[in-house]
């Protein structure tokens, strides 16, 4: 199975900061990576697909990049509503695998 | 807009069985791969199972292979997950998820809680 190693596991930030989360795949997955945001008590929601394509309706401060094994999600000018947990997912091959998650909280 | 609503989660004893259901609306259900994803209390997301549009292909995470079975009824826009031989470690919220063409998950249900405990 392809492992998705996500880091950091948690990060503290102030409103207006830039936050970067990374995922490393244990083997190449082309650009078959998506990113999800989950707020407490809610289902996850899609932010980025195909490594770098922002889902319709998602603010432009969310940016994804990467190809092959190394991927990142950057939140520029983080806003209060962005404090949540973020997950990467590889859908290149079964079993589909998520990263361990990154909790972003207010410093 | 697509909507997914799960049901069927409850408290069950180890070794027991449950059948989860998901009713889909707002999109052409029969045209999309569908999935189940779970999340243990305080834990991360784990993909559980997937089913092709015509049910000709099904995939499972190793930990549920042989115990869980995914199925669908395209005439009634329903997705199912049969859970047998349940273990304590199967305790989780189970989400019904729609796959957008290209492999990623664009719509999620609110989830249904399965608790396995004696």
What does this protein look like?
The complex is a heterodimer of chains A (107) and B (118). Chain A contains no helices and 11 strands. Chain A has 107 residues and is an all-beta fold. In chain A, strands 2, 4, 5, 6, 9, 10 and 11 form a 7-stranded mixed beta sheet that branches. A 4-stranded antiparallel beta sheet of chain A has the order 1-3-8-7, with no helix packed on it. Chain A starts with a strand and ends with a strand. The model of chain A has no long low-confidence stretch (mean pLDDT 97). With 118 residues, chain B is mostly beta strands. Helix content of chain B is 0%, strand content 51%. Chain B is built from no helices and 11 strands. Chain B has strands spanning 3-7, 11-12, 18-25, 34-39, 45-51, 58-60, 68-73, 78-83, 92-99, 105-108, 112-116. In chain B, the strands form 2 sheets. In chain B, strands 2, 4, 5, 6, 9, 10 and 11 form a 7-stranded mixed beta sheet that branches. In chain B, strands 1-3-8-7 form a 4-stranded antiparallel beta sheet, with no helix packed on it. In chain B, a hairpin with a 5-residue loop joins strand 9 (92-99) and strand 10 (105-108). Classes of the chains: A mainly beta (107), B mainly beta (118). The A-B interface holds A 1, 32, 34, 36, 38, 43-46, 49-50, 55, 87, 89, 91-92, 94-101 and B 35, 44-47, 50, 59-62, 95, 100, 102-106, 108-111.
């Amino acid at each position: 199975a392809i492992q998705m190693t996500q880091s950091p596991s948690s990060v503290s930030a102030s409103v207006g900061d830039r936050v970067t989360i990374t995922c490393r795949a244990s083997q190449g997955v082309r650009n078959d990576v998506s990113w999800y945001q989950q707020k407490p008590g809610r289902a996850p929601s899609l932010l980025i697909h195909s490594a770098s394509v922002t889902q319709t309706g998602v603010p432009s401060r969310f940016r994804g990049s990467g190809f092959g094994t190394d991927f990142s999600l950057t939140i520029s000018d983080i806003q209060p509503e962005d404090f949540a947990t973020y997950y990467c997912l590889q859908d290149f091959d079964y079993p589909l695998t998520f990263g361990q998650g990154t909790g972003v909280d207010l410093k | 807009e697509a909507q997914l609503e799960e049901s069927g989660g409850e408290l069950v004893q180890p070794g027991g069985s449950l059948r989860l259901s998901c009713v889909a609306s707002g999109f052409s259900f029969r045209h999309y791969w569908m999935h189940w994803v779970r999340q243990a209390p305080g834990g991360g997301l784990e993909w559980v199972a997937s089913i092709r549009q015509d049910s000709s292909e099904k995939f499972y995470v190793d930990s549920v292979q042989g115990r869980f079975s995914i199925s669908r009824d395209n005439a009634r826009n329903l997705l199912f997950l049969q859970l047998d031989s349940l273990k304590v470690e199967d305790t989780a919220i189970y989400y019904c998820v729609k796959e957008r063409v290209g492999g990623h998950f664009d719509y999620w249900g609110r989830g249904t809680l399965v608790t396995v405990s004696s």
